[in-house]
Write a structure and sequence with these properties.
With 132 residues, this protein is mainly alpha-helical. The chain is built from 5 helices and 3 strands, in the order H-E-E-E-H-H-H-H. It holds the Pfam family Fer2_2.
Length: 132
């Protein structure tokens, strides 16, 4: 995805599906792209962080990560955002504990977890406010 399509939000890190930095949505379900062969995506909707919003039109989750400083180096951020997107699509009014559990499959080497949780909670609030 990075090399052929230029989708640089799909990070290459562990290569073993352990860190979540390469998380994409496959038919709305978070999956680690490093464990997928290109052919496995055929016939499925694949969405990367580039597909939910861009510089001119940020998704509420992307904006919340900026507003709540939900990152330090930013390497893991696309994976967290995609995991949050799938989670909030199913649970638009989560508790802090539910967010922590949902994000537990992603690793942040900088330790920004409290800010990531705050970002997801803020994103949920922003999305609810947009819909009302």
């Amino acid at each position: 995805m990075r090399d052929k399509l230029g989708l640089i939000g799909v990070k290459v890190s562990c290569g073993e599906g352990e860190c979540g930095s390469c998380t994409i949505l496959v038919d709305g379900i978070p999956c680690t792209a490093c464990l997928m062969l290109g052919r496995q995506g055929e016939g499925h909707e694949l969405v990367t962080v580039e597909g939910i919003g861009g510089y001119e039109n940020l998704h509420p989750i992307q904006q919340a990560f900026i507003d709540e400083q939900g990152f330090q180096c930013g390497f893991c951020t696309p994976g967290f955002i995609m995991t949050a997107k799938a989670f909030l699509d199913k649970n638009p009014n989560p508790t802090e504990e539910e967010v922590s559990i949902a994000m537990s499959g992603n690793i942040c080497r900088c330790g920004a977890y409290p800010y990531i949780v705050k970002s997801v909670l803020k994103a949920a609030e922003n999305i609810r406010n947009q819909q009302s």
